[in-house]
Amino acid sequence: MQNRGYFNQFGGAFIPEILVPTFDQLEAAYLEAKADPAFWQEYVDLMSTYSCRATPITYAENLSRHFGGAQIYIKREDLNHTGAHKANNVMGQGLLTKRMGKKRVIAETGAGQHGVATATMAAKFGFDCTIYMGAVDVARQRPNVFWMEQMGATVVPVEDGSATLKDAINEAFRDWVTNMDDTHYVLGTACGPYPFPEMVSWFQSIIGSEAREQMLARQGRLPNRVYACVGGGSNAMGLFSGFMTDTEVELVGVEAGGRGKGIGEHAARLAYDDATIGVAQGYKTYFLQNNNGQMMDTHSVSAGLDYVGVSPILADLHDTGRVRFEAATDDEVVAAMQLVVQKEGLIPALESSHAFAQAFKEAPAMGKDEIILINQSGRADKDIFTVADAIDDPKWREFIITKADQYRARAAAEGGVE
Amino acid sequence: MLEQYIKQRLQHKDLLLMTHIVLGYPSYDDAMRLVEGMVEAGVDLMELQIPFSEPMADGPVILKANAQALKAGATMEKSLRMAEQITAAFDIPFLFMTYYNILFKYGVSDFVAKMQAIGIKGAIIPDLPPEEGSEYLQAMQKHGLDPVHIFTPNSSMARKQQLNKHTSGFMYTVARKGVTGKDTQFGDELGDYLLDCRQATDLPLALGFGVKSKADYEFIRGKADVAIIGSEAIRVMEDHGVDAVGPFIRSIIT
Ligand SMILES: Cc1ncc(COP(=O)(O)O)c(C=O)c1O
Questions:
Q1: Interface check A6 vs B, CB under 8 A
Q2: Which of the listed residues A377, A383, A387 should we mutate to test ligand 1's pocket, taking the one with most ligand atoms within 8 A of CB?
Q3: Which of these, A305, A379, A392, lies nearest to A349 by C-alpha position?
Q4: pTM summary value
């Protein structure tokens, strides 16, 4: 590789030797595409015909009035095909996969959004597709597993380690070190070895460049504060990149506060003090690990933020102070989501609801002439089971029981389970 | 230093054997008995793996061994103490195999100094390419220890030559793509690949990934200098107990 992808002390490419030529090829394809304006045009055209770009910005009039402070605007990444910003990165990497002449794609997925997006891309471009997903996440995100399988992808539940996102990433790498010749690994967030953090952020920067233009066109000015949730960091990097050099715009990354501080209770690598710098999964960043360097379990109500590491680019922006990091707890997040549903009729994913929760803490203290922009990174259709559990909706429970009874009766009639 | 040791041994027999254990798996006591059984059976070198929660380059057998060791309470302190006992008790060279975060969190230079202090002769760090390893490589050199790197069937001649510059002791060559512990087809291609490896380095060649049987071992004779058995010995222990490993090793080398 020509570069190692460092952002001060963070990043790098700590890759097994067998993948060195694969990364050489990937870096070359990425740099070539980046230098080719026709590639970006092809990407934008694809996203505006296959997905829903440019996604709009919605003024949240009722929420703004409710809090009585800043004017709240929402960037609608939930309107992408497959319901999340993940589509941006996936389609970009799909075009690169074609350029590299590969025929198969693999991906890890946490919430399942990246898996679904990758499966759609594979269906559209005619690639074989295998998705690695932690067994815990398979259990809590069944609707996404269903769609991935319908689209022809093989979904492999990963039982190792904590059976969540990081373990799915390890397993995807194990596949890749065997099948690199015909396979591209579509990493789903701005993490992993160089060039992934930079490349994924580049594809996601379409969010920020649109948002900046849209704010200027609509309001004639930039927002005062911009909020995005941070799992691996791709939607945050995407939105923030549009305002990175506008130093008057405050950038706020919101991590999963889970059940609060204390290792094992959350997935806040930057907002809390529980993470330390380490090297795993091919890159150097802050990890939630013990002092022996073993990765620790994380917790979040949202599968997509439940991850031990964080984008090396965001780790650097944390240390330089350009981005402020906060955490929202599970309870705050579910409450914020319900409020958005009730006040605006929008349905933010649990991941995205972290950004809303933090913005809601700060909006009341801001002036009416100030502007907040929140990234609604995805929609919550996939979260229906989790949310119904969290708010303990009796009608939903009844529905599931009835449905289960029907399946049970059918299975008995077919001579299956008792 | 490992290079001299290997070359000396090669004057008496034409193929050496290196094995692999995971410190703390299934327990520290059992791992100690495992080492004892292997050394008595005639193993020439051994890798001691310090367990890590994210062993990205390892296949199912060693991956589980890492996870189980950690679950059973393996720590850095215990692993280092045990390594020290092993090097004191047995008269063959031992290397550490682990992932970079283990060194990084300990402090790379401190870790390397510690290796020397407890009698470890070299290290294999599969997620640390030389481009990222300058602190490690300098410390290894300063302490007279051997950093071992890996040749793969994907490595170009230029890459092999570059790796050779940063390697001492011996070169670890993997027989195929993929992770540890899966089957390898030992055929003509492998012979050609090893000839290629010889051109890139004067160091002894150790061949690993998928060596399981006496037939595999015999196939390697005359092509590489050291055969490496990793996952298979762990599998034998899991299926037949710690005491079965010595006889298994003996059945391969005699
Ligand atoms: C809707 C949504 N938002 C956010 C994330 C977090 O990922 P990232 O931090 O890369 O944007 C996910 C991940 O699955 C997601 O599905």
A1: no
A2: A377
A3: A379
A4: 0.96
